[in-house]
Amino acid sequence: MFDVLHCIKDQHDYRLVLLAVVICIVASMGAVLLIRHARHLSGHQTVRWVAGAGLAIGFGIWATHFVAMLGYDPGFVAGYDLPLTVVSLIVAITGTTAAFFVSLAWVNRKGLASSSLLFCTGIAAMHYIGMSALELPARMHWNVEYVAASLVLAIVPTYPALVLAMFGRSLRSGVAAGLLMATAIVLLHFSGMTALRLTPAVMDHDAAMLVSPRTMIVLVTAGSLGLLTSCIALLAMARKARLALQASDLEMRILVRGITDCAIYMLDRDARVVNWNAGAQRLKGYDAREAIGLPLAAFHTPEDRARSLPQQAVAHALATGKFSGEGWRIRRDGTRFWAHVTIEKVTAENGDHIGFAKITRDMTRFKEDEDRLREMAGHLDAALGNMYQGLCLFDADRRLVLANPRFSEIWGLDPAEAPLGRELSAVIDLVLGGQAVSGLSHEALDALRLKIGQMFEVSGGSPVVIDCGDRMVVSMLSRAMPDGGRVVTFEDITERRRSEARIAHMAMHDSLTGLPNRPAFAHWIDAELEQARHFGHQLAVVMIDLDRFKEINDTRGHGAGDLALQHLSRRLLDAAVDGEVVARLGGDEFAAAKRFRDKAELAAFLDRLQACFATPVGPQDNAFHLGGSLGVAVFPHDGEWREQILNNADLAMYRAKGNLGERIAYYEPAMDEHARARRQIANDLRQAIDRGELSLVYQAQHSLSTDALNGYEALLRWDHPTRGAISPVEFIPIAEETGEIFRIGEWVMREACREARNWPGGLKVAVNLSAVQLLQADLADVVRAILVETGLSPARLELEITETAIIADKIRALHLLRQIKALGVSIAIDDFGTGYSSLDTLHSFPFDKIKIDKSFVLKSQHSVEARAIIKAVLALGRSLNMPVLAEGVETLAQAVLLKEQGCEEAQGYYFGRPGSAPGVQEMPAMAVV
Q1: CB distance 234 to 328 below 8 Å
Q2: Quick one: which H or E segment has residue 267?
Q3: Do 357 and 371 sit in the same domain of this protein?
Q4: Residue 395: inside a domain, yes or no?
Q5: Is the pLDDT of residue 247 over 70?
Q6: How far is C-alpha 354 from the geometric centre of its chain's CA atoms?
Q7: Are residues 265 and 229 in the same domain?
Q8: How many domains does the chain have?
Q9: Which of 15-29, 72-86, 165-179 shows the lowest per-residue confidence on average (mean pLDDT)?
């Protein structure tokens, strides 16, 4: 032992030794976490996670060894044989991965002992192969005793480490397993190093491909990074899986909340418990922490387990979709109860099997009642009176010889009218004349008579449910007696069925609006597609997205938003007729569908949907308009399968959403290519700033009265590396949809202010603001920060907005603009004369400038209407004492016309095309005569 400490102290750099130990511990902890996660998986998932654990620990062992070797000072200049170094890495990964597979496949003492031996063999092989890769001017001699000791010292802590990793559940056991595993690796390495003795000798430089210590540092660093990356990636996958499981648990708890009379829980595909409700805890005695992960067989008796009954029940549910049965079950404290169980197969939307739903009811009392009838004939009356089921006993001649009071209560019979001695058919007539089934039609009564009569002939098996309409649902069970008679029991399961119906409704309907949800809508579409293929009619799917619904939540509160959704849902539901469905898919996304044979039916359907948005929603004192964009795809023209049709309807909806004048859009094949192109532009746009692909050009703004240069407008340009120059008209809307406009807008403002700071003569710079930017609550703070950062005077910055940007939320937008103007920044209203221009907007906010849209200037030479609009805007500016700037001036005649009408400023190609930053050289003024 002292030799080992001497080796570490005198022949190693303790800093690198400490680094090696840290790497070893990180790798061991990561491997323990991954192997624990793999315990609960199956099939290919287990292989992937075990391979990840082997990769993590293999990299860690290899990095530990060579980091420690880099700290080893043999007294000679050393190198490393590259092939043997690579082989040592492969051996480490292969050995540890194989050990983990053995420990999972053979979970007992022999299996863990074998995997411990295999694990240590892999470590030892890596160590001594790695040592043989060391090339130096000396001969290696090995002390056999220390070599043997290194193997023993590695095996001793490895076995308990694997036991804790495989069977432990707590964080403490996981940490202990990782530390023991790291201890085994470190002990083997340093005891193996102690076994080494070196004697000087001539080094053969041509014997191998040598790697210098510096190169080894690079290799080890790469290995360590590989270890860290793999651990992070795999643990991220584990976290995602854990979050998905937590979400599943939450859904389950919501569905079964308040149901405490039976145990309801979920099983995974391997029939292990994944969640646990309060009824299960009350019935079986396990709390959730104890139950999660237990196999189904844990609740069965030893006799049932010996006969493989749990496995048979799961196999039956997997094959047929459902298993029902009765039998004894065991509680946590060892007591038994008679249970009625139902196991149903659960599948995802795509049809994949994801687990089982299990419902267990305590039927001990029922079992005891039945047994008491056979065993305690002397106490029959008391027993029958306490039963919560109705019971009838018929003799071999089908005559009623016994009936308990509960039988009369269930069927609403007069207790004074004893049916004893009557034949079966007379008893059935008496039952069907009771109050419980009063009001049913003759056809329904005949069907009930036939079903009860048939059930009387069934021996044993599962109960048969008799639906008596809205009033009652009864479970009936008939069993043959040894003497030829029969015992028939009746149980009122009305409340249970209503609970099941509520759960089923919650699973397939939206909780806020009561409309069918996404799974229900998908089920409806699948069924209709089958009908459409068989009968040859068409099916239209309509995707509906509400316009600016987020603004309603932000400005009026989520309560108002929820109320609006409820009002709209009622309208959509009222608008639907037979053969049509409406659903809420989530958030502000709705969907509708209709089967039809001619276009007129579809047009009428769409008109009814559009009419739902025609009037305001909400109470009269807080009503507001709710717009919607509709996308339509039709089977079979626009797709053969549900997902294809829904996707194409989505594409059409986004087309409608992007066109202001279009509220309904039909799918066209070109939309697929357009959508792909937009997605690619959106992806590239996120990296455009970092890649330096965006730039600004500047267009001069001149005074028409003095011919002086007043400033420049900053215009954004994108030079894509493969597409070339992309117009702002194309990429700015995409930036607004994805939210990238916030980062781009800040970048444009910052670059323009930084450039304008160097301009002479106090020239102004004008920057356009997007409508989406006006939704940014801290916009004024952003402008202030940019001005402070660049040092530009607020008086030299002018922000241009369009009136359409204000219309969405006028009060909020004007509030933000007043905050910005308070900084000293001027505000100009752009493209005046188009869109929603109104005197109310100019009256509500004191703009510093009006900009006439270039479309009027370009038409001014040949359009009397354009000249009249220009003249009116100029007169309006003079009356409001607000300067006016005309855009798009391209000719001298246009400039002269504007000057004659009293326009103060102008910009356009006549004064020069947009170019690079002007710097200290100003663009020359153009004389206007």
Answers
A1: no
A2: strand 263-267
A3: no
A4: yes
A5: no
A6: 17
A7: no
A8: 4
A9: 72-86
Alpha-carbon span 23 to 62, nearest angstrom: 10
Q: Are residues 394 and 378 in the same domain?
A: yes
Query: 174 lies in a domain?
Result: yes
Q: Model's pTM, two decimal places?
A: 0.40
Task: Give the sheet arrangement for strand 400-403, strand by strand.
Answer: 400-403, 390-394, 486-492, 473-480, 464-467
- Cα-flanking dihedrals φ and ψ of residue 863, to 5°? -125, 120
Tell me the backbone φ, ψ of residue 509, rounded to 5 degrees: -135, 150
Q: At residue 367, does pLDDT exceed 50?
A: yes
Domain end: 345, 362, 379, which one? 362
Q: How high is the pLDDT of residue 429?
A: 79
pLDDT at 921 over 50: no
Q: Is 825 a residue whose pLDDT tops 90?
A: yes
Q: What is the mean pLDDT of residues 768-773?
A: 88
Q: How many helices (H) and strands (E) in the chain?
A: 33, 28
Same domain, 551 and 625: yes
Distance CA 637, CA 668 (A): 10
Residues 703/719, Cβ–Cβ less than 8 Å = no
Residue 110, C-beta contacts closer than 8 angstroms, at least 6 positions apart? none
pLDDT at 335 over 50: yes
Say if residue 127 is in the same domain as residue 223.
yes
What mean pLDDT do residues 50-79 have? 67
Per residue, the 3-state secondary structure of 498-510, as one string, reads HHHHHHHHHHHEC
What is the total residue count of the chain? 929
pLDDT of residue 744: 93
Question: Is pLDDT above 50 for 513?
Answer: yes
Quote helix, strand, coil % in the chain, to nearest 5.
55, 20, 25
Q: Give the separation between CA 507 and CA 826, rounded to whole angstroms.
A: 55
Task: Give the integer Cα–Cα distance in Å for 791 and 785.
Answer: 10
**824 belongs to a structural domain:** no
Q: How far apart are CA 528 and CA 778, in angstroms?
A: 49
The half-sphere exposure of 322 on its side-chain side, counting CA atoms within 13 A, is 5
Asked whether residue 578 is assigned to any structural domain, the reply reads yes
d(CA 190, CA 253): 53
Query: Residue 885: its pLDDT value, please?
Result: 92
Question: Does residue 786 carry a pLDDT above 90?
Answer: yes
pLDDT of residue 594: 92
Is residue 782 very low, low, confident or very high in pLDDT (cuts 50, 70, 90)? very high
pLDDT band for position 2 (50/70/90)?
very low
357 phi and psi, to 5 degrees?
-105, 135
User: pLDDT band at residue 924, thresholds of 50, 70 and 90?
Assistant: very low
Domain that holds residue 453: 367-500
Same domain (yes/no): 48, 127: yes
- Give the end-to-end CA distance of the chain in Å, rounded to a whole number: 103
Euclidean distance between CA atoms 271 and 315, whole angstroms: 10
Distance CA 800, CA 711 (A): 14
CB neighbour list of residue 375: distance below 8 Å, 6 or more residues apart: none
pLDDT cut 70: percent of the chain above it: 77
The residue among 662, 689, 722 that closes a domain is: 662
Mean pLDDT in residue range 277-295: 87
**Torsion angle of alpha carbons 543, 547, 553, 555, nearest 10°?**
180
Answer whether 910's CB lies under 8 Å from 893's CB.
Answer: no
pLDDT band at residue 24 under the 50/70/90 scheme: confident
CATH number at residue 279: 3.30.450.20
Peptide bond into 918 cis (omega under 30): no
Residue 289 neighbours by CB under 8 Å, 6+ apart:
none
State the Cα angle at 422 between 417 and 425, rounded to 5°: 110
Residue 264: left (phi > 0), alpha (psi -120 to 50), or beta? beta
What are the residues facing 300 on neighbouring strands?
A: 329
Q: What is the DSSP letter of 925?
A: P
Average pLDDT over residues 390-414: 82
Question: Do 646 and 546 lie in a common domain?
Answer: yes
- Domain match, 490 and 609 both: no
